Structure prediction request, 296 residues.
Amino acid sequence: MAKVKVQEVPVVWIQTGSCTGCSVSVLNSVSPSIKNVLIDEVVPGTHISLRFQATVMAGQGEAVLKVLEGTPKKDRDGYLLVVEGAIPTKDGGIYGTLGERDGKPLPMVVWVEELVKNAVAIVALGTCAAFGGIAAGSPNPGGYSGVDSLLKERRINKPLINVPGCPPHPDWFVGTIAAILLQGLPKPEDLDEFKRPKAFYGKLIHENCPRRAYFDEGKFARKFGEPGCLNELGCKGPVTYADCPLRLWNHGTNWCIGAGSPCIGCCEPGFPDLMAPFYQKLTDAALPAIGVEQKK
Ligand code: SF4
Ligand code: SF4
Prediction:
């Protein structure tokens, strides 16, 4: 029987100003396992070829940086660029560097600018990469920026998909990659106004929350551990778009509100500053009703 050629999609995954939590979350993907994602066919006939990922690759030092440096030239047909972490931009980006060039530290922002050139698309993994996140929290002395803001500022036009979360759920990343391999890049209507796939970020936490009946009846927990809606304890579910209440975390084990913690709005632009104080009641948000259409 003739062997069907398996298409290889090169993926370059660069970590900038990050805590590596997004990698850790995605590496804990259970179904499919990360081994399946990295080695097997993600969708029939297609598998990814991970060219660079500092947390999991065996190589180190100059040899692997050469691979990274050579990628835009070698893979002229393009590759998928995954950016994890916010990008330090102030003072030429000197607050975050990766390797050296001509004996000088090479700023992460330069790496990103070079790697986006021949990328087919960019996946900004995690809230830091998508919107700046914790790294860009006030007072942000390093001028940390999300990918979208950086590209806009540098007038670089590239397809971008934001997969926020602090950290992001492994399914959000694996599902986004699988959809790209299966159907190509998402259409504009597949993404929300913040370039998040609606498949994962299409509904408010508040809309699907199992404590919603308490909210509607005005039964609020006043102390942690009490039954009731967590609105008085600072829950940001009414302003946060993600499918955590349906998908759950740790392979369906539990999730933030299920464990008694308010949602802290980790998938939203402006997190953490706009969501702080985490345990203080939302005051100026209009609380939407069940079935509300997502912002276009
Ligand atoms: S405010 Fe939070 S805990 Fe209460 S119903 Fe909405 S999402 Fe659930
Ligand atoms: S429930 Fe809220 S804080 Fe928890 S992971 Fe989901 S979006 Fe983030």
About this structure: The first helix runs from residue 21 to 27. The pocket of iron/sulfur cluster (ligand 2) is lined by residues 205, 240, 242, 244, 255-256, 263-264, 266-267 (CB under 6 Å).
